[in-house]
Structure formats: structure tokens, C-alpha cells
Records
---
Amino acid sequence: MTHKKLLNLTFWRGVLLVIFAGGIYSSVLRFAGGLGNSTALSDEFPWGLWVGFDVLCGVAVAAGGFTISAVVYIFNIERFKPIIRPTILTAFLGYVLVIVGLLFDLGQPLRIWHPLVMWNPHSVMFEVAWCVMFYTTVLFLEFSPMLFERLRLGRPLKVIHAITIPLVILGVILSMLHQSSLGSLYLIVPAKLHPLWYSPLLPIYFFISAIALGCAMTIFESFLSYRAFGKHLELGLLSELGKVIVVVLTVFLVLRLQDLAGRNALGLVLQSSYESRMYLAEVLMGIIGPILLLLIPKVRNSHSGLFVASVLVVLGFIMNRLNVSITGMEASAGRSYFPTWTELSVTFMIVAAGFLLFGLAVKYLPVFPPEVRIHQGLQDEPREMVPNLIPRSLLLGSKAVLATGALIVLAAVSLSYSGLRYRSVSLQGVAEQARMVDIMNALKYYQMAPDIVFAQAESSPGKVVLRHSTHVDSAQPNCTICHIKAFRILRNPQAKEASVLSGDMHDEHRCGSCHNGQKAFSVKDDCTLCHSSE
Amino acid sequence: MNQKNKKGILFDSTRCIGCGACYEACKERNHLPKTVENFLDDELSDKTYSTVKSRNGHFLRRFCMHCEVPTCASVCPVAALEKTELGPVVYHSDRCIGCRYCIQACPFNIPKYEWTKRTPLVRKCDLCSDRLLAGQRTACAEVCPTGATTFGGRDFLIAEARRRFRSSPGRYLERIYGLEEVGGTDVLLLADISFESLGLRTDLSKQPLPLLTWNVLQKIPNFVTVGGVLLGGIWWITNRRDEVRLAERRTQGS
């Protein structure tokens, strides 16, 4: 039975296969060719898609885990218990994939352990590194009961249960630190990040928006599990999460607007610029749109309404992180950034791996309580998977919600698109007029280097003295004409005489490079021109 | 850190004749390959740690500013970049993990990466720290034929800059770039036209940038302890409430 299922190639399996093939090929390119040959990264743009999406968004996906576990274990609101395991699973997978993403992004991935032993507590990146390591461990422990139950290991299960509360508290604190620290990363670039996104409140923004995303991801993946695996949908709970999203996003919006106003940057929003368009698109899609949708009880309590709103939150969130990490940095970098297909395909592979692992875990581990299985999905009818992935409610009813959602996305896309046209203009630097430099004044300070007496070889017809005065254009001295490689410019403290050079002085790398009969008289001409007879 | 021992460079663009001696000396000292035909066209890269640019009719050198409180050293998670006592900000390549936060964070866009290498490292000027330890000047200062690049103690260089302001009134802008920028740098620049027109950022704050993140980071220990106690307390209360409720129900039932 299992064997037969493996061979069954459905549409989505085909898609996965293509994504993985592309991703693996790109991985080879990345690790064999280096970052410069496989990515659009450069000295002007050292952080791209892998930081902006794989790390900044990947970590935030885990926010549902700590939010829900705090609600259930710390605040003892037990009714959220049915959704705690899928959120923990998402969080754990999110962190594992962030580490995978980091291995791609780091220039020296084999040294990823260095922050463990080489400390710099002044660095936000150090905090980030420690949070990743600690919280991945905590998440694994929180996830482990699913494994232990499946493997029927009673002993370790007991141990984990005994330390649940300290574990959850540790997890919540680490997660809060980590979410905010990703925002703190950008606190140190006040002169580089565009004022629409730079704010002293960045750590708080990153934390708040991560909570909204965590809730939205919980809704999103519940729907996917419901459709793909026939898992029970806790609609009541999810609609409550919808309410939480409204509150969190409203706080986020008010804080951001107030902060913009406080920094006299509110006017920037209405300016016609690349950044303002991207900002508006982000706020419309990720904040205002979902708030308006979820405020309506009818929408909040419907399958399609919740689904559409959560998708908007996720898209808007991704846009926010990319705006901070890419859009907002482009003007100061003086160049635009767009990921190469290698960067894109690695990212697709990582996301696909997330979906695949989540699916496998749901299938083989007790992620959802078994008794609430109400109908059979994928397992018996794999061919129905394609239509199944789109919620039926979206296809039949609630057309208004779907239309509104599509409209919002469309508006955001067209805003961003119109913004992109401003980008090409704003990034074209003003061409500097080539002007001759007046060095008359500076030349007063010019001190010609002394003459150099070369040591005489046995076969030499006479000593050679190099006079800087006859070799340098005193109106426009250029030392690099001779002082390239062969003629050292730095004094050698050991050498008493300027014997410095090995090999034949006459060859085309040394005196002969100019004394070739074209630039200056040839070394084959009269020897006494250089070799004095005295 | 002993401020008196701090060494630095004073670059006076009014004395620079664009001869390229500093450019060549830097290449030689660091064993860097030739990158361009005309050195004035070269940009900072993993193969060029010091450039001479012609901007608005003036020559300007660009190389590491060797900040008093370096942003790069602050952001590096593994302390691969370090401000040494003599002044140079040096790089311990064996520590670097390649996160490129230094490149992202440097307010002067100095550190450059070996993008084409399979195990890349960060590259930048180290103020010839080995020469300094041996009591020598930097390579660029040693070869400069006009004194546009002057090496010395930071305090001496500031005094020298002010002396030049006094002795040639009206010639200079009478501002030392690097005196206060991001908390001060050990490389100081003089010019007779505005620093903006030389392509330098003049909107940098006077406070060292690492303070921006340190203000947040230093709160972590308190956050962890207070947060832990708070969450534990909340759990204790809510848990206790449930226990009491259960117990009451039990007594009512019996």
C-alpha cells in the first residue's frame, strides 16, 4: 500500500519534484561557485533575499508557537489546546529551515558554531545567533512529545511533561528576544535605511508584527491541513485568533503612524516615490485590508473570510520584511537589488521543504488529536488533492470576500508596480561633471623623491642612477606609471643599496617597459645614456 | 584605552596632487593585484583597500576611517573585528563566519567581501597595524610626496589641522571631518570645499552608532529575569485559580 502510494505522481508531487530539482541545482551553483557567482549580492547590497525572506520571515513563522503556548500553558486558557501542536510544529520547522537558509547565506557556513565560543555581547547578530540555537533546542523539546508518543516512549515523555512550564516560559522569552532582535539588527543603520521604515521602535515593530503573522499562519495552516488531510477545523478558535489579529494589527498601525508623525516623516508617505508606493502597498495589504475584513463578524466567522484575511496578513508581512531589508536600503546603496533565479529557487526549495515536512509530520505523528478526524482526505483519494487544496467555500460562496481580497492584492501590486517606475529614476545618480583638478596650490608641497643609485652588476658597463626629476612630469606627477609591481615604492629597511630588483633590468617589465624606443629611447640604444662611465 | 597613544592619519585634500603613490604603496604592502589601468578609476574592493578619487575638482582618498567606536566591531557576532589600542581596526579572519553585518552596518561603506571566493573573507585597510607595532608609519603616509597624507598621534593631527587653519586663513573649510562623526574617527579629513561635494556623508550623528543597539541589548538580562518571574507568576496564579475552582466544585459535589 505504502509502496504504491510512493509511486503515485500527483500534480503537487510533480511541482515539489521540479522545485527540489531546481533548488538542488542552485545549491550546487552556490557552494561550488561562491556567493558572488550565484547571487545578486554585492558590496553595496550584502544582504538580499536569503536574509530578507528566509531568515526574517522564517523566524516570524514561529511566532504562533510561543503565542499559543503562552496562552495555553501560562494563561491556562485551555480551549486553545487543540491548535497548540500544529503551531509548535510550524515553529520548529520554521527554525530548522532558518538554519538551512543561514547555511546558504553565510560566507563560511562551516563556522556557524563560532558564536558559541567566540563572544561579542555588543552585537545584535550575536544575540540572534544565540536565540536561534537556544530556541531551536527548546522548540525541539516542545515538539518531542509528538515523537515520543508515536514511538511509545513513556519515560522521556514524562520528563518533558514535568518540565513543560519552565520550557514554555524559556521559549516565550527567547522568542520575544529573537523576534525583536531581528528588528534591532537594523537599528544601527539610521543613515542607510529609508525613514519610512527606520525607527527606534524597530524591535517592537518586528515583535508585534510577528505575533500577527503567527496567528495568521495558524489560521492558514489549519485550513491547509483541513483541506489536504481532512483535519478538523476549530473555526471558533480561529475566528478568535482573527479578533486577536485585528487588535495586534491596529496597535501596529497606530504605533507606526504615530512614530512617523513624531519623526516628521508622515509627509514621506504621500510623496510620489518608490519607497512611498511600496510602503502604502505594504500597509494596505498587510494591515488595513485584514483589519477591515476581520472587523466584520460575518467575514471573521466564515471559512473564506478567515482564509483570505490570513493570506493578506502573510503577504503584507513578507512585504514588510522585504521592504525593510531590500526596498528601504536601495536608495542609500545607490543600486537596486533583485534576486537571481538561484536565490529564488533555493528559497522555493526551503519553503517547499517546509510544506513537505509539515505534511509528513501531520501524516505520521500525532499532531492533531486523532478523535476529531471527521473526514478522510488525501490518504484514500490522492487524485482529489488538487481541487481539495482550494477551500471549497472559496469556490462556491463568499464571492464578495474573495473579490475584496483579490482587489486589495491587486491594489497593492499596482501600487508597487507604479513605485518601481520611480525607482529607476531615483537610482540614476546625477552624473558628475568631469573637471580637471587644479593642483597648482598642492604642488607647492611636492617633494621630489631622491635619486636612486642602483648597485652595479659585474657585466654592467657602468653605474645607473635613476633621477626622479627626469622621470616625473612635474606638472602632473603620476607615481603609478613606474611603481607597479617591479619597482617597489616602499622602502626596504634591510637593503643598503637599491639593488632591489632581480632579473634583467632591461626587460619589458622593468626599464624596458618604457625604454622600448616608442615611449622613450630604447635600452638597446647608447648604453651611456643610463650607464655612466665614471 | 590610552587615548594618547592613538595613531591616525590626517588627509588634507588641498595638498593632494593625485600622484597615486599612496594607492600603489597600499597595493604593495598588502600584496594586492593590479585592478585597473588608471588608478583614479578604481573603487574600494577586496583587491583595493585605498583609493584616490577625483571629485568636483578635488582629490579625495577613501579608506577605512578607523572609528573610535567602530560600528563594524560592534556588530560582528564573533568579534572578528577589533579596535586595537594603537588605533587600527583590525580583522581576525579566522573568526569570521561571513554574515556580512559589518559591510551592511559600516557608515562609510568600507569593508568589502571576496564575493568570488568559495571561502570568502572581509577585506579592508588595517592602518598597517604591523608597521605601527614596529614603530613605522603607514605605507601610504611614508610615500606621500606632498604631506597630503600625514601620519601621527590623533591629538597631534588635530592640532596640526588647526595650525593649518590658522596659518592659511580662508584656505580651508575650517572643519575636520572625522573629529565628531559617529563619535570620532582616527582618520581625519580636511578640504576647501564642502564635504558633501566630495561625496562624504555629513548627516552622520555625533554619537557612536553602536550605542543605538547597545541601548537595547543591555536591557536583555533584566528582560529575561523580570520576564521569567512575571510569566512564572502568571502561571502560578492562573493554575492556582483552576485548582481552587476544581476543589470548590469537588466540595460542592460532596
---
Amino acid sequence: MINKEVANVQEALKGVTHNMVFMLGGFGLCGIPENAIAQLVKLGVKGLTCISNNAGVDDFGLGLLLQKKQIKKMISSYVGENEEFERQMLSGELDVELIPQGTLAERCRAAQAGFPAFYTPAGYGTEVAEGKETREFNGKMYVLEHAFKADFAFIKAWKGDAAGNLVFKGTARNFNPIMCGAAKITVAEVEELVPLGTLDPNQIHIPGIFVQRIFQGINYEKRIEQRTVRTKS
Amino acid sequence: MLDKIGIAKRLAKELKDGYYVNLGIGIPTLVANYVPEGIAVEFQSENGVLGMGPFPFEGEEDADIINAGKQTITTLPGASFFDSALSFSMIRGKHVDLTILGAMEVAENGDIANWKIPGKMVKGMGGAMDLVASAENIIVAMMHTNKEGESKLLKRCSLPLTGVGCIKKIVTNLAVLEVTEKGFKLLERAPGVSIDDIKNATEGKLIIEDDIPEIIV
């Protein structure tokens, strides 16, 4: 077994510095790497480019980094629900690149899988395709999109082991698995770091080869963005 | 005229047995409440779930189980979770049979605009561009006119596009229309709505053939 376990978030984020490009898992506030984000706030690194489907809310998730003006550029598919984000975007302090969600996902997966680029129909004929190579296949037009390049991927999983194997829960899976191995260094934080051998190899979502560092996360808040319930009748 | 529930009920008639369906935010979400008796459909949410169920009972909500609107949800027996790339493989790969989404504008050539108003805060397209570029069967659910009373069924979209030539059908508070090579073909009209009402509310070319039946919901 190749041991990927590190003692804590401080050790896990060693080498993080200003002006880096990060990938961060999560959809809304679901499945976000809470510990890594908190540590990035503590480290005070600035000039960051963050690849993340969303940008958190004002006081949680990536909103915490926005408050401290640590983010220079966001690459996302949807960025509502965040007033500070809106203020920084409209004032020009924050550079924002909006891309279709499926393209965002595939640009992660392409980086993970070793594809430099791929063609997608998404965005053809819209401003998303402006300046990009297009090509016809079987009578339909496609846009060439490139794999992301990132320094760190920050991943949140449900369970993991010292070998770096990961299991996700529910829709907290989202972008997390496809960002594993898509950056130079993948850091996974888990709710439960379980003893080696207890995860069933048949049930592992991401094999440890895609993960460089793994640690037991702490104090998960797992905030719900839109609590919707029905009443028992 | 139909209200939002009426539009959702009419849309539900488009569901067929065995369909995998992606519902957008807003009116489309309501369609899940009116699945016709005796047919089996599964709802996909692009954040990574197939087989979505109703909202959870109070106290049973799980932060790790949400839909693309970030609302807490439940899953039904047979449901599955998956990552975002696989989710869009379902969408781009045309495995999802029906997509219903909202729009700000639809043009008579099938173009759709639903993500950006210049000069206003842009929140992003989310999965809309992937959905409209890929799905074969896309229905738009929207009000026939905007808040200023202007038609949303246009000759050409004025807002930045989400996709080109992709919309096949539209269900509004006034009518059901099919997008054809010649323009918007009127299929059905809402109860209490005249042909002239629809003509007046449609800027794009409207094609009226034969008798136009009333929408039954």
C-alpha cells in the first residue's frame, strides 16, 4: 500500500501559494471541501483562480474566500446566491468565466483522463463559442473545448482510506470524482477515514492512484442551501 | 388562460411510459407532481441523481441529497447517484428522452435565450446549454409574454442565445405551439383564450391551420 494519509489540513495544503489555480468539488454547498476552504482562508493566499461549479454563498463555501478578496478569477457554470460575488464581479475586481456545466465537467474529466481537448455541441452558436474552433461531425456542429490545468484539486468524499481510495455519498459526489487526478496534486478530505481493508474494492468510486494526499476532515457543517420539505398528512 | 399549475399539468401530458426526463427550475419542476397514472418515468437532475422522489418530510432532509435547484429531495427505489461528467453523458449522449425548461425568449427558428440579460447580473447558464444542444425532445415552458406584456415568441431572439435551432415545442399560459420550418404552428389554445389573443401575443410567424382545440388539463 502506498500511504497517502497526512495528519491534518495544514499538512495536506503544503505547497499552496499565491496565484495558483485550484479545482474545488461541490454543487452549491453540497460536497464542498469545507476544511480545505477554511485553511485557504487562514493561509491568506491571494490571486487565486478557482474552478468550481458554483461560488458558494456570502458566508460559506467559496464565499469565505471572496470575502477576503483572495480570488482573482472564478470559472463556474452558475454563480447566483452571492451578493459579495455580484459586487466584485460588477466592480471588475473579480474576473468571471461562465461555461456550460457539462463542459465544465468534461474539462475536468479530460484533464483526469489525459485528453487535451474534446468537441461538444454545448454552446455552439452562442457567445460561449466565440473565438473557438468549431467543426461539423455527422451534420451537427461542435465546439472545441480544452482540458483544465490546475495546481491543486480539493476534494470532499464521504469515506476514504490511507491508500487514497474514495467513496462518495448521494449528490455530494457531483464534480468531486472527476477533479481527482485532474490537477498536479489532489487533496481529499473525508468525513470518515476508515482502516485500510475495510472499504470493499468493488464499491470504491475513485481509486487511490488519483489522490496524492488524504486526511480526516473535522467539524463538517454541511449547510443546506434550500431546505425544502413536505408535511406529513 | 392557464396558470403555472395548468401549464405544468399540460406539460405532464407529454410524459410517456419509459421516459427519462430532465426538468428545469421553475414551472418545469412542478411537472413531477402530475405524472399521469399508469406510466413509469424517472426524473434526472443534472447534479447527479436519477430517480428523484418528492421533497423529504421535515426532519428527514439530508444535506448530501439535493436537486439541481439545491433543494433537499428524496430518491425512489431504483434511484442512482453519479458524478457530473456521467450526468452530462446522459444528456449529451441523448439518453435523456425529454427536457423541459424555461425561457426568456424563443424564436420561430427554434433558437432559445434563457441565461443572460445584458447589463444585469449574469448568474450563468448552468446546464442549460448542454441540455438544449443535445436533447432531441425539448419543450419550453413559459409565459407567452414578459412582465412588460411583450411577446416572448419572436422572429429572432434579442437576448444572448443559449442554443440554436433546438426548440421543438412550447407550452405557454395561452397556447401549445410546435416550432416548424415555417414558424410557430398553433396546436392548442388555453381555455378562454381566442386565436386573436394568441396572434396579438406572438411576434414571430404564427401558423394556424384547421380548428384549434382547447387545451384539456
